[in-house]
Amino acid sequence: MADRYLHLTGTAPGRFLTRRLGLPQPAALRRWSLETPRLDGPLLHLTAGDSAITDELAKALAATGLTVDAQAARPAGIVLDATGVTSARGLAEVHAALHPVVRSQAPGGRIVVIGTPPSSEDHHQAAAQQALEGFVRSLGKEIGRGSTAQLVRIPAGAAPGAAESTLRFLLSPRSAYVSGQVIELTTAAPDPEADRDAPLSGRTALVTGAARGIGASVASVLARDGAHVIVLDVPQAQDDLVRTADRLGATALPLDITAPDAAARIAAAAPDGLDVLVHNAGITRDRRLANMPAECWAQVIDVNLDSVLRTTDELLTSGTLNRGGRVVATASIAGIAGNNGQTNYAAGKAGVIGFVRSLGPRAAAEHGVTVNAVAPGFIETKMTAAVPLFIREAGRRMNSLSQGGLPVDVAEAVAWFAQPGSAAVNGQVLRVCGQSLLGA
């Protein structure tokens, strides 16, 4: 559904009126396309404190395709290496580095602060590095004009190139609706990518709930990145599912993901195994707890959480998920902040977050598989188009970018998790919400 307010604020009279009334002034977001695959402008690389990763970070930034220019007057991206900030006094260098340049950033720009995990043995370092999180979350709410801010924590001993795929994603139009996020990397080495423009070439991906909406968009982006995609949805959605499959050159698998033999049928559809498993299927049965029948509770938990646990366990145990594989589940802002009338939905989505954080490290150690999740906020779909007007407008405006996201925003985040180069990204829950004011 068209966002008429966003269109209005893109006109001169609309800008004047909303400025006078003190209303939000969202900027149209620049997303990835063949015509605009990169940010339009140079990259400014700054340092606060004494960094031990300067050379390695420079190599990762070169891989973004952006020109690093220390004298850039209008940078499209700013990267601040703050890994060397180890004390409260050292935070003054963060201010000194960004204060002179933050206003000069181009509209729709990206700010990425590089930190390191807070230490359990040095409380001064831990305090300074944790301070960066509050700093970045606040900065994301200040900068406006469609710009975003993120914190990436790189641990000591990280493998060469561990941060490359993450920086390519965050410093690109693909991350347009991601802001105020903290991403903690592991020390795992990236898997090789033969073609950076098609990193999923030769890999097989399965997407559940893929007949329409976010699932169909995820399937489309994975296919764009070179994957052979198997699209799965309930038999009742078979017509839409087949249309999606035909459009993408994908394989349609009509199947209820809650069926007892779902994992076995998925394995049969992927005789050479799966490299990417995307749990996108989900339902709502909204009622307040006092009015919620047991069947409404059970249906939502079964589809949104239990099916994720069962199928992942069985596909890992059977070896259907290949080494180097990626599991990406769909959580929700509701699972982080809660939502009136959605105790069942929020419980299921919070459960997905617990699943990711617990299984990620073990799956990597035992199977060579990473496990991550996206947590969408207000995304423009047929479901949100049916929400009453004032509630819909509140959902759109209550984030740092003052607008709803698109299904492709979720899909781009899933595709980043799915890349071979993202082996160091594990156990993460990425909010794709424009930095929603709910759940902080």
From TrEMBL:
User: Ranges for the Ketoreductase domain?
Assistant: 203-377
Keywords attached to this Swiss-Prot or TrEMBL record, sorted alphabetically, are: Oxidoreductase
Q: What is the native source organism of this protein?
A: Streptomyces filamentosus (Streptomyces roseosporus)
List, alphabetically, the PANTHER family matched.
3-OXOACYL-[ACYL-CARRIER-PROTEIN] REDUCTASE [NADH], SHORT-CHAIN DEHYDROGENASES/REDUCTASES FAMILY MEMBER
What is the enzyme's class at the highest EC level?
Answer: oxidoreductase
Q: Which InterPro entries match?
A: KR_dom (IPR057326), NAD(P)-bd_dom_sf (IPR036291), Sc_DH/Rdtase_CS (IPR020904), SDR_fam (IPR002347)
SMART domains given in the database record:
PKS_KR
Gene Ontology molecular function, alphabetical: 3-oxoacyl-[acyl-carrier-protein] reductase (NADPH) activity
Q: Superkingdom of this entry's organism?
A: Bacteria
- From which lineage does this chain's organism come? Bacteria, Bacillati, Actinomycetota, Actinomycetes, Kitasatosporales
Family of this protein: Belongs to the short-chain dehydrogenases/reductases (SDR) family.
EC number(s) stated in the UniProt entry for this protein: 1.1.1.100
The molecule here is called 3-oxoacyl-ACP reductase
Q: Does the keyword Lipid metabolism apply?
A: no
